[in-house]
Amino acid sequence: MPTLPLIILLILLSILPTNATPPRPITTPKNPPKPRATWYNTFWTDTAASVKYTNGAEGAYSVTWNGTGNFVGGKGWNPGSTTKLISWTGTFAPQGYAYLTIYGWTTNPLIEYYIIENYHPSHEPAAPPEGEVVGNLTSDGSFYSVRTKMRVNKPSIVGTATFRQIFSVREVVRSEGVVTVGNHFAAWKEVGLKTGTHNYMVVATEGNNSSGKADIVVH
Ligand SMILES: *[C@@H]1O[C@H](CO)[C@@H](O)[C@H](O)[C@H]1NC(C)=O
Ligand SMILES: *[C@@H]1O[C@H](CO)[C@@H](O)[C@H](O)[C@H]1NC(C)=O
Ligand SMILES: *[C@@H]1O[C@H](CO)[C@@H](O)[C@H](O)[C@H]1NC(C)=O
Ligand SMILES: *[C@@H]1O[C@H](CO)[C@@H](O)[C@H](O)[C@H]1NC(C)=O
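Above: query sequence and 2-acetamido-2-deoxy-beta-D-glucopyranose SMILES. Below: predicted holo structure tokens.
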């Protein structure tokens, strides 16, 4: 004789829909995901700083540093492109002069550019009189100040050279988000700051005479 719980189970089974569907044929997706572009990473130091740059999988990297020297390291693409929407997450914890920035170079003309997303308040990037404020834009939820300065006989992607630096400096700083790169290149062009052929474009951490730690994942 069935026990009470078994009777309840049998009643439940009899009222539940059976949902018996035939096995699905195996199909290949119509639009298979495109393979990601190869990640590019760059790391430069004047060797005066003590820096440990660790290249992680995919878009990840981490860096810890201290000492008096200058370094810049990051992950992204080569060549870069003005149509990129750059998305990244992470933590940025500097003590002293350091930037978290979209960073890259163009050639003809040779330009070193920065879209500064975060920085330590002890050193505001290219603030007058170090740099010149030439314009501004609003993009991705914040005002950005456009600044420029010349570098004379400094290290560059083509060796020691004299070249212009362009900066967009975000007012509402942040350590993760999405940057519409094209808005910056358009704003720079509008104030007469020419850029050239894209070289690399990365999400970089730069430090100079400071210490800190950054863990970044570019998506
Ligand atoms: C930072 O300084 C300490 C000594 O104070 C040293 O042990 C360490 O290796 C340095 N470098 C980094 C990247 O943390
Ligand atoms: C932004 O640029 C416009 C146009 O050049 C200028 O009139 C305005 O004063 C600038 N705003 C700030 C806050 O710098
Ligand atoms: C790094 O800091 C030193 C000393 O504060 C300064 O002379 C140098 O110009 C800085 N380098 C960069 C790339 O800003
Ligand atoms: C480096 O930073 C320290 C502490 O922040 C500061 O006292 C020193 O003047 C800086 N060095 C240079 C060359 O600016």
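The mean pLDDT is 90.
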